[in-house]
Amino acid sequence: VGEFIRAAEGYKRMQEVDRWVVGRMLDWMVDNREKISQIGGIAINLSGHSLNDESLLEFIFERLTKYDCPLEKITFEITEAAAIAKLHDVSDFMKELQEYGCRFCLGNYGTGVISYQFLRDLPVDLIKVDGSFVRELANDENDRMMLRSMVEMAHYLKREVVAPQIETREAFEELKQIGVDYAQGYFIERPKSLANLWATLE
User: Dihedral sign, CA of 6, 11, 17, 18?
Assistant: First the structure.
């Protein structure tokens, strides 16, 4: 998957990929309203490259507002935020969708010197810290201190924090002590197809 995404970004085709993913996910939500009510929500990745495409933003807004689906269940996770060219325009787009109930998450937080700028300038509801701060958390004091500082800053700004790539109970317990709001990783649950997820719920 990572190689596919890098190739799509390299050939400037992420807009088409994101358009397809968003369209298919919204269609699925419309057709499965009862199932959606059984889960906390759905996260859809959006590349910073795609957010520079005004036609894609218009497409997303039109599809979201056209159908009567539970928009409060949708969180858009922004990846490659450094690629965003017009922060003000993207910020306005996000605020408009937030009025309909959508939420936004700033992904890969903590990598790059401009992470704090995006946290300041984009009205995100959550941040997802980069997995590189989590993988060795139980054994690395530096990672614990850096992660703690990110959590404190996010909470001060009234954002929630997601920690990915949690593979051990030790890391999970450390994150609870630090105050992370949501956990993601093999220790919590392994990835499943939608069909397998519903079979588990039933």
Answer: positive
In this structure, the strands spanning 182-183 and 103-109 are: unpaired
How far apart are alpha carbons 184 and 49 in whole angstroms? 25
**Quick one: 47 exposed, middle or buried, by C-beta within 10 A (0-12, 13-18, 19+)?**
buried
User: What is the torsion angle, in degrees rounded to the nearest 10, for the CA atoms of residue 96, residue 101, residue 107 and residue 113?
Assistant: 40
- Region at 6 (left for phi over 0; alpha for psi -120 to 50; beta for the rest): alpha
Instruction: With beta carbons less than 8 A apart as the criterion, state whether 78 and 107 touch.
Output: yes
Cα 166 to Cα 183: distance, rounded to the nearest angstrom: 7
Q: Are strands 74-79 and 103-109 parallel, antiparallel or unpaired?
A: parallel
60-95 tens-digit pLDDT: 888 888 877 788 999 999 988 888 888 999 999 999
